[in-house]
Design a protein that fits this description.
It is a single chain. By secondary structure, this protein is α/β, with parallel strands linked by helices. The chain has a domain at about 70-75 and about 160-285: Vaccinia Virus protein VP39 (Rossmann fold). It is about 25% helix and about 20% strand. The protein has a seven-stranded mixed sheet.
Length: about 300
């Protein structure tokens, strides 16, 4: 049985995710005490990761269907400026010095932020805004995240060289490229075919071709390569996805995920797994695009 050393409503959140009870509205926490108590006391052994080499569907969840990345079209014309010039490098240094370094003390993360050309991941119409510290549209209702937030979320993962990390929501590809600067085992999932294809093309052009990418419903994670030392989710579900927690390494696996209602602000959580114990720590308020699910 997992022991939750958090507030009462966090235990509710975790239990609901395990049981697959659907969407959780964060402002409603604390209501329906009987239901909360019953959920919190439900055994959750099937929630934990399968043993190595074993792929087991979680009870109460559909079997994930992974569609080949080849179904995600690779654009012939890439609306990106890939060249890194003295001007873009200088802009990147200013961004890191003024907006990232004051918030992040991890030198490896700062080095990654200096190395990855953010302008190469944004549509060319936003080139002049690429090194401002705010999100930018990338089409299909999605955005590239604020650089300082990318840095903070990456630092929370506490990655070491050789760690296996999963990103849910490839989007522009920027976060995956930052992760690749820190470890050579990066796996990323994008549900929108056009974004998946564009990101793949950018990875190949910039020398990140060894990033493992697929087009699929990220809610189910990537069982074939679990467990993961770290998972980062770059879109906001309204509850904690049980399959992702199940794929965390039991030896200190960490997940950074925004959780909250669609169209509103969410809370960014650090989830850790040690054996059968799962803990959650609320970090800050954020605003992410909603978590997109597969529809058949």
């Amino acid at each position: 049985m997992i022991e939750y050393r958090s507030s009462r409503w966090i235990r509710w959140l975790m239990a609901l995710a395990v049981l697959g009870i659907g969407a959780l509205s964060l402002p409603a926490c604390g209501r329906d005490d009987d239901r909360v108590r019953e959920a919190a006391e439900t055994p959750v052994e099937t929630f934990l990761s399968p043993s190595p080499g074993e792929v087991t569907a979680l009870a109460g969840t559909p079997t994930p269907t992974f569609r080949p990345l080849e179904l995600a079209p690779t654009p012939v014309y890439l609306d990106r400026q890939l060249a890194d010039t003295d001007e873009t490098r200088a802009a990147r240094r200013r961004l890191v010095q003024t907006r990232v370094a004051p918030l992040v003390t991890d030198d490896t993360v700062i080095g990654a932020m200096l190395a990855v050309p953010r302008h190469a991941f944004v549509p060319t119409q936003y080139l002049d805004l690429a090194y401002n510290d705010h999100a930018l549209p990338i089409g299909y209702g999605q955005s590239i995240s604020q650089p300082s937030l990318v840095a903070m979320m990456t630092a929370m993962l506490d990655l070491e060289a050789g760690d296996r990390v999963l990103e849910i929501g490839t989007g522009s590809g920027y976060q995956a490229a930052i992760l690749r600067q820190l470890t050579d085992q990066v796996y990323t999932i994008e549900i929108i075919p056009e974004l998946a294809g564009t990101a793949r093309r950018i990875f190949e052009e910039l020398g990140y071709g060894d990033i493992h990418a697929t087009r699929a419903d990220g809610y189910y994670g990537w069982w074939e390569f679990a467990p993961f030392d770290a998972i980062v989710v770059t879109a906001a579900p309204d509850h904690l996805p049980a399959p992702l927690v199940a794929q965390l390494s039991p030896d200190g696996g960490r997940m950074v995920i925004p959780i909250g209602p669609p169209g509103g602000y969410q809370s960014l959580w650090l989830v850790e797994r040690h054996g059968e114990e799962i803990t959650m720590e609320r970090k800050l308020d954020v605003g992410f695009v909603p978590f997109t699910r597969e529809t058949e």
